[in-house]
Design the sequence.
């Protein structure tokens, strides 16, 4: 019998909401109120998992963009006239993809660019990294790439901004400047032959990072822009590292000229700044979960559309969806 | 536990945030992350549950087997716990790396359930002194993002609730030996009463305050944590302190008087696989563990087949 009986008890002052997905037959939902005394704001939210929505590529979209998405094992072409590039291999005369991504054809070269991959740095990329080791005359930095990146002692600015030869004493005091666990913002100077990146913090805008929040996302979601340092109008500043590490920090004060990170202020950050930073962090996670390209405008739109919700609610699946939908609409309107 | 590195400045930021009751993700000190629970997904177990708390993923399977009861308590069955930290969670758990953490977690679970009231062990007895049900509870850690104890305890409670133990008929045959028959009907089974199964709450001391449901970054800033397992009536079954830091006795009392507990209601999920019911309901009750305790977390699944009375 297709009958569904639901009973909802109204609780004074509580929010009680339920969402039914799909058909409900023979289901009865029984709820019992247990040990309810005073009602304050919600502390724990338990729920049952929901089906992930299936997103189908509309035929018009794929025809316009001409994107050719492949998964590992898909045959790209059987024509032997092509040269095979990254992400492909020859399987019995057929060119097959070895990663999941889109096919790029440049004249006779066929390669597959993966959708989700470790950070492959190029010269000039801005990265945010964490020091993992202190070695002789260099630091090893973790930047979400295949190998740890290298920050040479000769590539950092010495205290006081002097330009001089690095002495043995500088080598011994390396740990005073950057320790294991410290965060830095740097630029890629060059790429070694094995693929490791060589970083430098030679400008005053790079250097050790102070108080703030690090958000780790996929590198493919960060849009390449002219500048990756933004002071958002909502009251916080953001560094969108090309390697997927995004750093949020309170907007620097007026008297500040970038000291290059030698002086990290350990003053408590005000509550309003903290709220902005927490909200931005949750918005970034929401955008990352829905694979939206990240740049200052999209982050800002997401922040604005999340304002009606409480900060801790942003990470709930339905709220995330709603916010991202509004952001996408705004972005489309802005373009069109 | 899997660890992350945090810089000094990040630690200071987190400490000040906890002091102001606004954590990095906007939660208060006593708020849990979003939790999702699913039961009955592993078909070759007698009961299973999967809990996702933030990015922590825990899968629990319960298998009921017949065994000999312990000599000291011939009319009771017992539970065996095993926690497996899978290398999927972090590379640190590869090979034997996860064994230490797994041992620590299983020992804590033994302590938590080591009393007569959590699970009615007498109902697991088949014939006194000879046969009893042994429940093997296997926990698999799929992803580790802090707060393992809480997630595991919730998953165990859900899995025990979901456990269906076949009914046993004992008949005497001609020579006086006992013959045990398990009923073949999948619906002819016994369910456990999980009302008194405790749930674990981990309180981490960060700075001068304590936080519930700490993430890995907050764990890196805390020196000590207190693990308390509480039943819904407020009975404390186990208290443990982990970590190298020291806890002031007064702060322990303060921690156990957590003001806003969480009282979560659970609703039935229909055994039909195609239907999903997502219900969000949370209610908080003011409770005080030491005096008249209320609940910390309660999971009370009421699933009785296809029809329920209200």
Sequence:
């Amino acid at each position: 019998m297709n009958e569904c009986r639901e009973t909802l008890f109204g609780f004074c002052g509580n929010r009680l909401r339920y969402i039914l997905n799909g058909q409900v037959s023979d289901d009865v939902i029984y709820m019992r109120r247990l040990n309810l005394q005073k009602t304050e704001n919600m502390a724990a939210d338990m729920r049952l998992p929901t089906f992930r929505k299936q997103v189908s590529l509309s035929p018009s979209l794929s025809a316009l963009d001409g994107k050719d998405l492949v998964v590992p094992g898909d045959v790209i072409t059987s024509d032997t006239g092509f040269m095979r590039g990254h992400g492909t291999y020859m399987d019995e005369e057929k060119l097959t993809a070895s990663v999941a991504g889109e096919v790029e054809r440049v004249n006779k070269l066929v390669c597959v660019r993966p959708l989700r991959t470790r950070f492959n740095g190029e010269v000039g990329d801005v990265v945010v990294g964490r020091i993992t080791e202190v070695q002789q005359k260099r630091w090893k930095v973790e930047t979400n790439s295949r190998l740890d990146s290298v920050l040479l002692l000769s590539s950092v600015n010495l205290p006081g901004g002097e330009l001089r030869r690095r002495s043995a004493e500088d080598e011994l005091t390396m740990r005073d400047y950057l320790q294991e666990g410290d965060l830095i913002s740097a630029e890629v100077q060059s790429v070694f032959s094995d693929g490791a990146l060589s970083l430098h913090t030679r400008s005053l805008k790079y250097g050790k990072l102070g108080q703030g929040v690090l958000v780790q996302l996929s590198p493919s979601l960060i849009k390449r822009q002219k500048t990756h340092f933004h002071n958002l109008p909502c009251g916080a500043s953001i560094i969108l590292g090309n390697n997927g590490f995004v750093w949020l920090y309170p907007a620097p004060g007026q008297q500040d000229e970038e000291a290059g990170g030698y002086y990290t202020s350990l003053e408590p950050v005000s509550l309003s700044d903290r709220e902005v930073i927490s909200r931005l962090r949750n918005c970034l996670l929401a955008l990352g979960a829905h694979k939206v390209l990240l740049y200052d405008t999209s982050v800002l739109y997401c922040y604005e559309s999340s304002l009606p919700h409480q900060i801790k609610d942003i990470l709930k699946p339905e709220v995330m969806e709603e916010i991202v939908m509004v952001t996408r609409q705004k972005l489309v309107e802005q373009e069109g | 536990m899997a660890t992350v590195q945090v810089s000094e400045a990040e630690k200071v930021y987190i400490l000040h945030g906890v002091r102001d009751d606004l954590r990095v993700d906007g939660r208060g000190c006593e708020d849990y992350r979003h939790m999702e629970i699913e039961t009955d997904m592993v078909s070759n177990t007698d009961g299973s549950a999967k809990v996702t708390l933030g990015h922590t993923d825990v899968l629990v399977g319960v298998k009921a087997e017949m065994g000999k009861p312990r000599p000291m308590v011939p009319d009771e069955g017992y539970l065996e716990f095993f926690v497996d930290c899978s290398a999927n969670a972090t590379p640190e758990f590869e090979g034997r790396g996860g064994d230490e953490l797994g041992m620590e977690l299983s020992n804590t679970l033994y302590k938590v359930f080591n009393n007569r009231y959590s699970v009615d062990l007498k109902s697991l007895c088949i014939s006194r002194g000879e046969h009893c049900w042994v429940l093997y509870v296997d926990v698999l850690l799929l992803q580790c993002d802090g707060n393992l104890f809480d997630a595991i305890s919730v998953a165990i409670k859900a899995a025990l609730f979901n456990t269906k133990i076949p009914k046993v008929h004992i008949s005497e045959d001609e020579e006086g030996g006992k013959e045990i028959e398990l009923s073949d009907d999948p619906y002819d089974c016994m369910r456990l009463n999980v009302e008194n199964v405790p749930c674990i709450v981990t309180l981490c001391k960060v700075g001068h305050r304590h936080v519930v449901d700490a993430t890995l970054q907050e764990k890196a800033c805390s020196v000590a944590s207190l693990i308390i397992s509480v039943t819904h009536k407020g009975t404390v079954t186990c208290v443990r302190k982990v970590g190298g830091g020291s806890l002031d006795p007064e702060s322990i009392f303060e921690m156990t008087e957590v003001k806003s507990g969480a009282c979560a209601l659970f609703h039935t999920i229909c055994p039909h696989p195609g239907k999903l019911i997502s219900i969000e309901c949370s209610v908080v009750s003011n409770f005080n563990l030491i005096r008249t305790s209320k609940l910390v977390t309660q999971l009370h699944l009421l699933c009785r087949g296809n029809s329920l009375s209200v």
